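Researcher: Batch entry, complex prediction.
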Amino acid sequence: MTSPTPLQAGATVADLGEFGLIAELVQRFEQGPAVYVGPGDDAAVLRAPKGHVVVSTDLLVENRHFRRDWATATDVGHRAAAQNISDVNAMGGRATALTVGLALPADLPAQWAVDLAEGIAAEAALVGASVIGGDITRGSEIVVAITVLGECEVAPVLRSGARAGDVLAIAGRQGWAAAGLAVLGRGFRSPRAVVVAHQRPEPPYDAGPAAAKAGATAMIDVSDGLVADLGHLAAGSGVAIDVRSDAFTLDDPLVAVGAALGVEPLQFVLGGGEDHPLVATFPAGTELPEPFRPIGSVTAGEGVTVDGEIYEGDPGWTHF
Amino acid sequence: MTSPTPLQAGATVADLGEFGLIAELVQRFEQGPAVYVGPGDDAAVLRAPKGHVVVSTDLLVENRHFRRDWATATDVGHRAAAQNISDVNAMGGRATALTVGLALPADLPAQWAVDLAEGIAAEAALVGASVIGGDITRGSEIVVAITVLGECEVAPVLRSGARAGDVLAIAGRQGWAAAGLAVLGRGFRSPRAVVVAHQRPEPPYDAGPAAAKAGATAMIDVSDGLVADLGHLAAGSGVAIDVRSDAFTLDDPLVAVGAALGVEPLQFVLGGGEDHPLVATFPAGTELPEPFRPIGSVTAGEGVTVDGEIYEGDPGWTHF
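Model: Structure tokens for the complex:
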């Protein structure tokens, strides 16, 4: 990859034009060995050695999923890519390629789009995935539409396979992004650790394939909220799930934010989304793969309980 | 597939909510045999027997790519799917699956979204492709972000393989959608044939794989404009292309619209996009596969000429 040229200071998206902007972004997208045809043709072509292709699409809309005064464009790029790659992770797969569709206001600084692209490419590079194509058009607000492709070494892990008697386990941080969002929402920028957790989640990308190989029966990533997403898993599997609240260490930043905002810190853990940890169920007796740790159990029935009780807090985010 | 239930009259997107709307749309997406996991999990999983996956993403934004008073939601769905599937066609591939990302205003009638989904699904069904996933979120304007996946039986046909001496050929209608857009732009609804051509393009979906098998050296679909898109092919291949204007029959509706609007009808053919015909180059002497017909030639040099002259008209659409 050639070293990208700096943009003319103050140039807008309209100044560069569609093809000028595409050229700027494409030189920032390194193409890995799985790419047969990268950006620039009618379509991209990916080498797919496995018999299954995993696909997921997610949209981020400005002022709904991100605010330009709360996160840099690079942060938004990292987060947009992370939430998509996490969906492949939650199937037990590995992401191989992304496409990026952008609707951009004409007066948006072109540097913002370039920084966004660099964030997407950097996050994709964490798992060895390439940005292989996309589309740019004018819109009245910023929309980032990412589609991720991936592959599975073993059969994909669905939401529907949990069985009574299984152990419920989690891999990755939970509650930090929600605490960060709460802090930003009150006009603060600290504790910095939770703000950064909101701006750039760090999903446990190796945990998905590890869970699949270890025989996970069901899996989902926590994007909307722990209780909300476990609700999807319970419904998909036709089981009941109980979460033990004492399985969660309430990390110092969560306690600090809770104290400052007058919020029970466990609410960040149970209701928070956007950290993108994985929650998976395993047959009893399974040696849990790193970094999974047990947080509850699966029983016959339906719905999600916390310590045997219906959870009364906010279960998570809804889009309308 | 169960028969979809009718919506409550007057319900908005916000009335149904994210999951309610998703449930309405998903029951309209029939899943073909290539789908291993359809909508409803973290990601979809597609069976991919071939070693290559073709991928393309396109966005449509309200009032930029479509107007709700010029086209029904079903039309918009057909067109959004068609322009994506056409990109796979232009690689010589066949579309197998689509994902659909939607940003929708909360007060949008839910019926509009349902009709859009039915249009997308119906167009996809023309090539045997399934809608296997997507995302819905709130936005201040409608954005339809489609990603299409496909497969190639033979090596994909790129934009870069045209050689001096090749024959230039086209498959499909050209200029009709542009004439339709011109008519709509002046507030008219007829001739109906060109208005419908704009609302629902009919790309020649069998022509792409046929061209690939016949040994096409380069191929592109006309989405921005004939001269503009041939310019991409010429630049990609490092050749010059000459189009013979007398190779085009000026169909009656184009002549009628030209006369009514005071426009030379050949301009619709040379500058118009969105009909999504394929233009391809073949080695001299190749028996052109149906429905390709010769329209010009490839020579050493660069750029696109019409009857040996630089084209002075509008070459096509730009996005900023």
